[in-house]
């Protein structure tokens, strides 16, 4: 009898382990291109029955409701309609082991760029970058901002029911309030907070609240792509963060301009390299910035750069292979150039990440000039088999020959190009 009772939990453990072995490795969200065959494979030793409740999806060349997937028998799916559908999975045809959400996007074509840009950004609200004590006329020191529980990294967007977008706005609003308490609205991370603050009369005769604020930022990066219609752009592949607080800079408005490389600091183990550049024709904007997200910069293109080449198809993560690829970047005054790299690892991702691929620079010329991946190279398009598959985002400080890239499908999504 004891053996019988012991058998049941062992059986449950085996079944649970099996289900985990089938479900865990699956990419639960798959992006495919409208009208293009995409192969689905199962990293499990067992065959799984898949079912689709969608008339517009072809499996292995014909429309069917059910089909089998196994490591030795992958399935090719194709949809002629954009949108979303679900593939339900059952082991042995009757044990549910999860599902795959499929997102069908338009056949997007992008023009890879790889040229250096200058970014100028005005913040939405002002970023608190420092607090300081104020010496009052009685020689006592106070910090009204600290007393109001304002912290470094907070974004102040409203003061006394008036919009704040410049550091000078704070002085202007407070100048007639003297020491009267005014309401402050701010954002801290994802949390919105309301507090009150009273300025104090300092020893020099002015009313102050004891904080330093930043309202603009500028930097250098690489343009990743413009869309085939030459109306939108995407760049960097990661966000621009405030250098003091580390927070993603909220954008009120901004612009991009051409930039020129003036020198390259070679990357070495433990010391990241850098492309040093200058803004060129700063008053001639080539684009208007509207989004600074964790996954890149996006906005409206105003003028087309002649250095751009022909439009290319994109590859989704399901189509990307480990092995040889190239990056398109500019490390001197010449046109952007293709350099050889190796994709060492591809990470199946269900949600956006700036670290989708581990890449290694193999090009001797690039290694000689830069040591590998350097700051300022972020946004350089990654190309494989004549298609754009992603963009460079990070360098491994411990080994500058290696770094990370983001899947292009994440940038296409951030740019809003995956919607008809």
Main structural class: mainly beta
For the record, what CATH class of the largest domain applies? Answer: Mainly Beta
The major beta sheet can be summarized as: 6 strands, antiparallel, barrel
At the fold tier of CATH, the topology name of the largest domain is Thrombin, subunit H
What is the helix tally?
Answer: 5
Shape: globular
Overall mean pLDDT: 87
Q: Measured on Cα atoms, how large is the radius of gyration? A: 27 Å
Can you describe this structure in just a few lines?
This protein is mainly beta and 420 residues long. Helices cover 12% and strands 48% of the residues. It has a 6-stranded antiparallel β-barrel with strand order 11-20-21-25-24-22. Strands 27-28-29-32-31-30 form a 6-stranded antiparallel beta barrel. A 5-stranded mixed β-sheet has the order 1-9-8-3-6.
Kindly describe this structure.
It is a single chain. A hairpin with a 2-residue loop joins strand 24 and strand 25 (296-301). The chain has three domains: 2-105, Immunoglobulin-like; 108-122 and 218-420, Thrombin, subunit H (Beta Barrel); 133-209, Roll (Pdz3 Domain), CATH 2.30.42.10. The protein has a six-stranded antiparallel beta barrel with strand order 11-20-21-25-24-22. It has a six-stranded antiparallel barrel with strand order 27-28-29-32-31-30. The chain is built from five helices and 32 strands. By secondary structure, the protein is mainly beta.
């Amino acid at each position: 009898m004891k053996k019988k009772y012991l058998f049941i939990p062992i059986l449950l453990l085996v079944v649970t382990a099996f289900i985990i072995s089938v479900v865990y490795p699956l990419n639960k969200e798959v992006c495919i291109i409208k009208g293009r065959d995409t192969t689905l494979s199962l990293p499990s030793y067992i065959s799984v029955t898949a079912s689709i409740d969608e008339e517009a999806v072809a499996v292995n060349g014909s429309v069917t409701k059910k089909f089998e997937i196994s490591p030795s028998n992958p399935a090719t799916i194709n949809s002629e309609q954009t949108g979303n559908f679900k593939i339900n999975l059952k082991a042995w045809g009757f044990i549910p082991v999860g599902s795959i959400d499929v997102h069908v996007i338009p056949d997007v074509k992008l023009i890879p760029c790889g040229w250096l840009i200058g970014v100028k950004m005005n913040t939405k609200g002002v970023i608190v970058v420092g607090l300081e004590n104020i010496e009052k006329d009685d020689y006592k020191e106070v910090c009204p901002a600290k007393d109001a529980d304002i912290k470094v990294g907070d974004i102040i967007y409203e003061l006394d029911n008036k919009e704040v977008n410049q550091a000078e706005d704070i002085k202007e609003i407070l100048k007639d309030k003297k020491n009267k308490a005014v309401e402050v609205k701010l954002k801290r991370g994802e949390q919105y907070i309301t507090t009150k603050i009273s300025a104090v009369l300092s020893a020099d005769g002015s009313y102050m609240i004891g904080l330093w604020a930043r309202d603009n930022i500028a930097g250098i990066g690489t343009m990743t792509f413009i869309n085939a219609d030459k109306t939108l752009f995407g760049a960097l592949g990661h966000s621009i963060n405030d250098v003091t607080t580390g927070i993603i800079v909220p954008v009120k408005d901004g612009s991009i301009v051409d930039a020129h490389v003036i020198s390259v600091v070679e990357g070495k183990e433990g010391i990241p390299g850098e492309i040093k550049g200058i803004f060129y024709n700063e008053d001639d904007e080539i684009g208007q910035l509207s989004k600074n997200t964790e996954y890149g910069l996006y906005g409206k293109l105003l003028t087309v750069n002649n250095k751009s080449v022909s439009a290319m198809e994109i590859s989704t993560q399901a189509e990307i292979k480990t092995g040889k690829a190239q990056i398109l970047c500019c490390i001197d005054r010449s046109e952007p150039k293709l350099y050889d790299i190796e994709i060492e690892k591809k990470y199946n991702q269900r949600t956006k990440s700036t670290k989708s691929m581990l890449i290694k620079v193999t090009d001797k010329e690039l290694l000689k000039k830069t040591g590998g991946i350097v700051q300022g190279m972020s946004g350089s398009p990654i190309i494989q088999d004549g298609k754009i598959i992603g963009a460079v985002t990070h360098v491994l400080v411990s080994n500058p020959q290696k770094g990370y890239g983001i899947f292009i499908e994440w940038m296409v999504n951030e740019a809003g190009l995956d919607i008809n």
